[in-house]
Amino acid sequence: xxxxxxxxSRTFSEYLLVPGYSSKECMxxxxxxxxxxxKFKKGEEPxxxxxxxxxxxxxxxxxxxxxxxxxxxxxxxxxxFGSQSIESQAAMxxxxxxxxxxxxxxxxxxxxxxxxxxxxxxxxxxxxxxxAVTTDGTAQGKLVGMVTSRDYRVSRLDRDxxxxxxxxxxxxxxxxxxxxxxxxxxxxxxxxxINQLPIVDDEGRLQYLVFRKDYDSHKENKNELLDAQKRxxxxxxxxxxxxxxxxxxxxxxxxxxxxxxxSEGYSExxxxxxxxxxxxxxxxVKIGAGNVVDAEGFRFLAECGADFVKVGIGGGxxxxxxxxxxxxxxxxxxxxxxxxxxxxxxxxxxxYIPICxxxxxxxxxxxxxxxxxxxxxxxxGRYFARFDESPTNKVNIxxxxxxxxxxxxxxxxxxxxxxxxxxxxxLSFEEGVDSYVPYxxxxxxxxxLTTSKIRSTMCNCGALTIPELQKKAKLTLxxxxxxxxxxxxxxxxxxxxxxxxxx
Length: 503
Hints:
By secondary structure, this protein is α/β, with parallel strands linked by helices. Helix content is about 30%, strand content about 20%. It has helices spanning about 65-75, 85-100, 115-125, 165, 180-190, 210-220, 245-255, 270-280, 295-305, 320-325, 330-350, 365-370, 380-385, 445-460, 465-470, 480-485; strands at about 15-20, 35, 40, 50, 55, 75-80, 110, 130-135, 145, 170, 175, 195-200, 205-210, 235-240, 255-260, 285-290, 310, 350, 355-360, 375-380, 395, 400-405, 435-440, 475. Helix 1 (about 65-75) packs parallel to helix 14 and helix 9 (about 295-305) crosses helix 11.
């Protein structure tokens, strides 16, 4: 006989937090959103933590190297999408890891044999007026000079004049050797009253540029997530088909953490993948697994050696797995049960395995609910797809700016590996859609707003940390009528001024 769950499958919208006692210490500035990412033993510190509990989804429309750098600056982790060639994904990881806090890899480079017109074309394409002149025109070529807007006047030079004729040559530049710290670089910039400082290696090859403005930006990003070498922390998604080739390439590129990207994690395929990673790398390579929606699924992946477990099937805004296959679970019910299983496992073994809530987030407050229900961090697709830093196009639809957004199970992505249950290497039917989401601007502004809401709500609950929120939170089910009552009602709005996510 089939197993029946007697409780309804509930979503985040069916719950509200009940305020708790707030002491005078419960101020937003005192709230810490630091959270573990990988498993750890009782009494020990996790090998990897985040400063905010947000990660970006393993999706073509969301997570590339640009997103990885932007999110790491705010304290989260981006999992670069795996539905691309191994070489391409490894290159994205390498580019993201090549960034160091305050150090910039030059994206405007040219050879000395190029022309003024080439400079103007490059400026139009990148928007940057500072151009590094290297022997081969690449970001890591041998530095021979620099060009800024002060080096030429379009009205006085022919468009075909070569760069070497008007650039500032290397012997007139102030530069610093590789290994220079950010503080040292900043001192050189200020002492010499310059706006940028090239960093070159022993062979004269350009490594980084340090800009006066980027040092200030670095100081402002107090939550930025860095590894031991002051590089940004970067994640990547893998599948259960080519992991023996993909994982070594990603590890070589410098990836900090991996995640098996699958619509259904309770499978032998995931066990095989985790077993191989542990046999090959031991515990040095950190890897999460999923997705699951109940205690059995969590226990299975925990015993297989997952560093974190991802929770959620069918709750994403562009996911139609429930519609197509009739499997899944309301995200709130899934998180609550898996969190209980995680806590029981911790009591039994002394090993704490973080869980990641993936899907089901409609409004910002749903994130706080997910954390209160036991999630250690939250994976978001649509939320991040709306920002400048996502890899998709910004388009005008009926007078409003939108960003393209599609699921990994859509015909556009055709990420068959994510939905693979063995058999032919193809996507038999769609489990995702192709869509648009409202354009929302920069990641930094939106993430700061969202985390401010989370911190404020935590104060209302009398909690200054996520573990404290999970201990103190009081949650109540809401009726259909209270859902209506929870937003503006019985008034005529002058305008829709709400900046809640989404509208």
